[in-house]
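Quick one from the shared queue. A colleague (R.T.) flagged Periplasmic chaperone PpiD as missing a structural entry in our internal table.

Convert sequence to structure tokens.
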Amino acid sequence: MSVIQKIRDKYAVWIIVLICLAIVSFLLQDVFFGRSGMSQSNVVGKVNGEELTIADYQRRIEFTTDQMRQRMPGQTFDEEAQQYFREEAWNGFLRENIMAKQYEALGIVVTDAELVDAYSVNNPHPMVRQQFSNRETGAYDPSLLQQFNQAARQDPNMKAQILAFEQSIVEYQQNLKYYSLINKGIYYPKWLAKQQQEDAAKNANIGYVQVPYATIADSTIKPTDSELNKFIADNKAMFEVPEGRKIEYVSFDVIPTAADSAAAFAEIQKLKAEMDTTPDVTQFVKLNSEYNQYDGYVSRSAIQVPNKDSIIDLPKGASFGPYIDGNMLVYAKMLDRKNMADTVKIRQVLIFAQQGSDSIAKRQADSVEAVVRGGGDIAAIASAISQDPAAKENGGEVTLAPHTDVPAELAEVKTFAFEGATGAVKTVKLPIGYAVVKITEQKNIGPALKIAYLGKRVDASSASSNDMLTAANEFAAANTNRTAFDKTVQEKGLNKRIAENIQPMDFVLPGLGSSREIVSWAYSAGKNEVSRVFSLEDRFVIAVLTSIREKGTAPLDEVRPTVEAEVRKLKKAEQIIAKLGTPANLDAAAKATNQPVLTAEGVNFSSSYAPALNFEPRVIGAAFNKAWGTNKVSAPIQGQAGVFVIQVNNYTTADVPALDYAQQSQAFEGGIQQLIQQQLFQSVLKKNSSVKDNRAEFYRGN
């Protein structure tokens, strides 16, 4: 799973909180340091007249990045993740200012009395409860707040943190009041509930004639550009697009030559000879191998490497290789093998030691160990007193595999889990306290292997890179316009690729990786202009700008296939409707179009889908047209898959639950409230605000 997906899945709520804190921190910086009189040239964006300077924007990005580092320690954030943080920082600025206008217009404020009440002992604000809770009991502890306030009197930075925290409470409460006002305006009337109940209780059994659009060949329908452009003009909402660029490019990839491979082979042979004579293979591999490997035992079934079958049966001390794994030459050496479980379950009780109170924590851990050894239920104990946040839900249970990565401070816990026996109990000293651990299950005990992988990358030499650069420069010099570019690509059989929907603030392009320089060039070049040679990490790229799309309605060239399909369907419908005329009955419609009369049972007005019809909301709606009833055939109906003529044979009553207005009202209003929470800002407030984004001007690339 990518870093971005991890952030979205695991830290979505944290991101919102961090944005709020970032907003507050910038307000506080103005209080402590004042504004620096930034000139217009330093403004990266505006919303409703409020400016964002490049300095403030950079601080927002740094704040978000630092907070994510704290949430995901040890994680490396690549260019794609940094791009995500830049967008979060920008969106935080927009949200701050757009919502501030909403609060002001509606008179939404948070009084000093409300802020004081947030710290009340009996009913503290959720943010206060979370920030100042006792680590052992989880309960709000006002003494922790008092200690922090006392320290803040001597430390301006801590005072700033308190002010920022209180401002975040204000933001939280303003947002809560805003959406409470909106929610109060949502109402589900009883007449609507009754009508929907009646609709759901009525089915129609119909006969119909369908003339599929596929009965008319696409080749016979040739829409003109004027017809296509009229369709776009009549349906602008369908084709609303942001600003964008499209490029086509060729890439001269720097790949190792035979000489480069031979050099790598000679190097790994030399390293392998040294590895065979060293007394500490593990340390040697750590220092010399370029292969990303796990230093520990792995069950046979969990090993996933090329030539696995040859490697797992090696005797102790033997080697296999060199073999190819991606861009690596690798030797595998069997260091050790032993029997161990491939899965272990433990339960643990974590006891944190407060500063200067390690002996107290040790006595508590010893007491817990004694109770567990005496038959006490460690799951119940973990749920009651463990300071692991997840323990209350899972009773302190942890599942481990031999190759499971754990923090260094928990290595002894893992060692005990695999080397101890089922039912064994042990207290492990941790940097933050103690863990009382019990092994509850060891599954699939069998061979586990410890293998050292000595790897050497096969990299392209500087000579190989220079050869590719020369080839790229020759291509660029000989093809300075799009016509020549396309002709040479075709004549030489080069692989021309496409990157489209390029946004002004993109830093990463699919297939190219980090490529900000190309994006900046695309927004300064003219249409059909050919670029210079761009030097990326392992390739040289020459691009041609093939499309410039301004914000607004998409041009025909970009949406032609979609528009042609829709217009072609409309023109086919016109032909079919003209052929049908005004049929007296279904048999007449069938005869006029050479189509059979079909039936559909149980068509329900409350659904846009029927099994026999698929998704045909117009046809389903027509089945309940009172003007036609059961005596008249319908007029031709332009549907999704063809033109229909229908006649209702009869109506029947469906079994539906009795009306529970309170339950339906709660479900309806709750659904609307959730929809508003998700879409109001992006689809309404932001869209109706005056937003100017100049950020791309400040990120031109090298």
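Confidence is low (pLDDT under 50) at residues 1-5, 7-40.
The longest strand covers residues 328-340.
Added to the table.
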